[in-house]
Design goal:
With 317 residues, the protein is of the alpha/beta class. 44% of the residues lie in helices and 21% in strands. The strands form 2 sheets. Strands 3, 4, 5, 6, 7, 8, 9, 10 and 11 form a 9-stranded mixed beta sheet that branches. It has a two-stranded antiparallel sheet with strand order 1-2.
Length: 317
């Protein structure tokens, strides 16, 4: 016989009652049945737990040891049961949203908006440089929604069964240090005017790097050097004048940096929201898509250079 929690409760009941007769009554058992159960427990533990006398029972040294452990184990198990029940109720009543996205301000802005639009939801995020990785996580059911993007009209990443809806299409801007000779230029910048610069951008597994190289070739030059690194490092390289950077037009205002549009808009970035139709209800997807578009609109409104560009060129619907 293996020792079980009910056996520990029986031992505690006998000790608290002080006699087998009273303990049997409290447990709803016949005294012979309780006595037989106690003998089985004692055989399992290897010794006598209670000494029987005229005035009831008294714990032996082994019995005291076991009772000391029951004072720890039984309350701990009871608390575990209560916590598990609370957790199970919470999991049943709270919606969970698992969001993925490439590095950028849009993911954080979407989480912020969902905090108001879906206050009952628990939101978790996963950031990745790879649009293909995000698509794989959607396909495997490990993400509910993913914010990704494509260069220009390139197809969205991942399996064909995924749904990708367009959030917005942005021009790609250039980041310049505030002291750069072209930082205060009144007009849009010709890409050719930056032919002598070194460049910085975040990595990715789409065609953006190839499209940029092709745009430079059309402008009559080849990029001197490209630093592919995280957003913070890109910002630093621009701030210290090591490189000029490529960014989405929604890039937030940043000390020491000016963002400027490129003449003719040689590069575009298409923001997408993806999900798997087998795991998402249409109304839930519509809510998240609407909030993603609102997050993008808010990011665009906070960028003075983008607002000026939109005033001239209009929204890219």
């Amino acid at each position: 016989m293996e020792l079980e929690l009910r056996h520990l409760r029986t031992i505690r009941a006998i000790a608290e009652a002080g006699s087998l007769t009273r303990a049997a009554a409290e447990l709803g058992l016949a005294q012979p049945a309780l006595s037989a159960q106690l003998r089985r427990i004692e055989r399992t533990l290897g010794g006598t737990l209670f000494e029987r006398g005229r005035f009831g029972v008294r714990a032996t040294a082994l019995g005291e040891l076991v009772l000391e452990r029951t004072r720890i184990v039984l309350p701990a198990v009871s608390e575990l049961q209560r916590e598990a029940a609370r957790f199970a109720r919470t999991r049943r009543t709270r919606e969970r949203l698992r969001l993925g996205g490439t590095h950028g301000p849009l993911l954080g802005a979407l989480v912020d908006r969902l905090a108001d639009a879906a206050p009952e939801a628990t939101v978790t995020t996963c950031a990745s440089w790879s649009e293909r990785e995000l698509a794989e996580l959607l396909t495997e059911g490990r993400l509910d929604f993913a914010l990704a993007g494509t260069c220009g009209s390139a197809p969205p990443p991942g399996a064909p069964q995924l749904i990708w809806e367009e959030i917005a299409v942005d021009p790609v801007f250039v980041m310049l240090p505030e002291g750069h000779r072209l930082a205060q230029a009144p007009e849009e910048l010709d890409l050719a005017a930056l032919a002598g610069e070194e460049w910085a951008c975040v990595p990715g597994d789409g065609c953006f790097a190839d499209c940029f190289t092709a745009a430079c070739a059309r402008a009559g030059f080849a990029p001197r050097r490209m630093y592919e690194t995280d957003t913070a490092s890109c910002v630093h390289l621009v701030q210290v004048g090591r490189a000029v950077g490529l960014c989405r037009a929604t890039f937030p205002p940043t000390p020491g940096i000016t963002t400027r549009p490129l003449a003719g808009t040689p590069l575009n970035w298409r923001h997408l929201l993806g999900w798997h139709p087998a795991t998402q209800q249409p109304d839930r997807a519509a809510t998240v898509l609407a909030q993603a578009r609102g997050a993008h609109a808010g990011a665009a409104a906070r960028s003075d250079s983008y607002a000026e560009w939109l005033a001239v060129h209009g929204a890219r619907d």
